[in-house]
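LOG
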Amino acid sequence: MLNFLSPRISSFGIDLSDLSVKIAHFKKRGNHFYLSSFNRQEVKEGLIENGEIKKEEELIEVIKKTIKNTIGKPIDTKYCVVSLPETFSFVQVIKMPLMEREELAEAMKWELEAHVPMPKEEIYYDYQIINNDDKAPKDHLGVLLGVLPKKTVDPYLAILKKAELKPIAFDIEPVATARALIKNNYSPEPLIIIDFGARRTSLLIFYGQTIYFTTELPVYNTLLVETLSQKLGISREKALKIKLKVGLNIRHPQSRIYQELRLPLLEMTKKITDYIDFYNEHIMIPFGDGRNIKKIILCGGGAMMSGLPEFLADELKLSVELGNPWVNICDDFTSEFSTFPQNESLSFATAIGLAIRNNND
């Protein structure tokens, strides 16, 4: 999505969010890739707010510092693939008549007017034909349309250029996350990925080789920490430790910690159920083949909360598992990437997906 250069060149991934900058760079050794360098740098509050850049010069310095102080080998390329906030994005599957690719390119220009509430001159867009498997409907084309406002993209492009970098592509966060977590970018059954972030939690539904739906959920990591801090009368630092180590023990449902965490998470599970119903009613029938969602994959720093997979599985009656951002890179994470802190893997899923884009696409 939003390619600026087509040649396959060495590039690294930059995941920009309100609270951190994460980078990952892979290089090839024989037929395999290895993690050449990575880093994470905290972003002071107020530099980026809800995906909107507020303090350009300070953010540029954070990006430069993150690249300069990488763990591993120095980054030897200026080319990068960068995430853009889902908040301002538009991702939708569109049903189109059967036609040649050349005809589709022209038809999509007209579809923009029907589906996107912004003038074509004010957006960047990209699309891809959905082709799940032989059982998919053959009487129409499913087309995934992705749109971002120029007023969102252009400030990010400007600061990266001022940081002396050369972006070759921008990805919406869920697209990069799915690239890291889905083996060979293909799932024979529809599934949900939940990226449990510090200030934003996103949900996406993936099937075949395509994202069908993206949205945000009302619960995120800092909200749970603040809830525990306030309800238990403890510091945020202590609340964070309790959330990670104690978390949701479904064998002790009467505990104070379980009860305080349970209430906001029940609100989240209600939203997840609503989105599954929406998929079944409005997406599965027109574009799918009747297969139901049976699995949820968790990633993001908040996914490390003790007991979260078991809690969600019990409430939603679905299989819930922690994601593996290394699934498309190696079979044994511990032996291949001994310098990388294993407990950070889930929070680096988007950065990893960005880093491997130029190798997979």
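LOG (cont.) second protein
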Amino acid sequence: MTPEPAAPRRRRSWLSPGRLAGAGALILALVFVVSWIAPADGYELQLVDPAHPVAPLVRIAGHPTKNDGPIYFVDVRERPARLIERFIPWVRADGSSLVRSPPISSALEQRLGQVQMSDSQKVAPYVALKLLGYKATARSGGVAVLALDRKAPAAKVLKPNDVIVAVDGETIRTVAELRAHLAHKRPGERVDVRYRRGKETREAKVRTIADPTDAKHALIGVTVSDNLEVKLPLNVTIDAGGIGGPSAGLAFALDILQELGRNVTHGRRIAATGELALDGSVLPIGGVKQKTLGVRRAGVDVFLVPAGDNAREARRYAGGIRIIPVENVRQALRALATLSPKA
């Protein structure tokens, strides 16, 4: 008998369902790893940091140093966002927010934050000591331009080292005053800017632009700093430990008042945020969501927040914390005095 020919061997296809599924899983894993490592250019995450006591940072000559105290400040930690965090919210840290990066270099942003903190360390003691009746003087001859947003109309007029001295006929001595004036403007409005360039004073009309982090707020597209000189009758130093920005000004002033004998807290643990102007005004700040959550994590009773949009946002995340909107330091003191002492 003639043997039957052997059946041909079946070759396993590389396109079999099992292998396709494995390849797909590998590709998804690679995409996940790459998107977790790769940065989301132009975006950063604002992260929650628990509120910190102010007292360990403040030193007043002739007064005992405190290692703890009932007044807290809050800051916001920031880092570049990862690509996956831009598109998938649930992988972000609890309480974090994705925001566009400022239109300036990271080095300039860090430098600006340190300048703003340095100004807060001068303004807060000045305001506190003036309220207590001490003789203190403060002087600033305008705001110096550090850098400009190249896309802003102001970049066609202003240059680094120019000093803005007035906007719409209103004298501008500090960054806080410039922000307070622009807070009443809408993006796209024109403002009259008077500035010094060397020994020459010039004027120009500049169209405002929208704040990249809040489209309702107007900016003129400049990064500026104060040239602030403060003379105090007491030696007050504040060590911020590398934290930047202006938002601790109110907390610093309240703690100085408390340490110099004013009953600020009335038995409660108080947190405060807000940029402080030389006249004691409390100006809006950023990162309110993260700061409110940071206050909650610290177990604080009351949170003083700049009145307006800041206070409304704080109430959204307050939980059981009492939010007190304030426009100036005197109002903050009156509001705290009406609270009954905590049992």
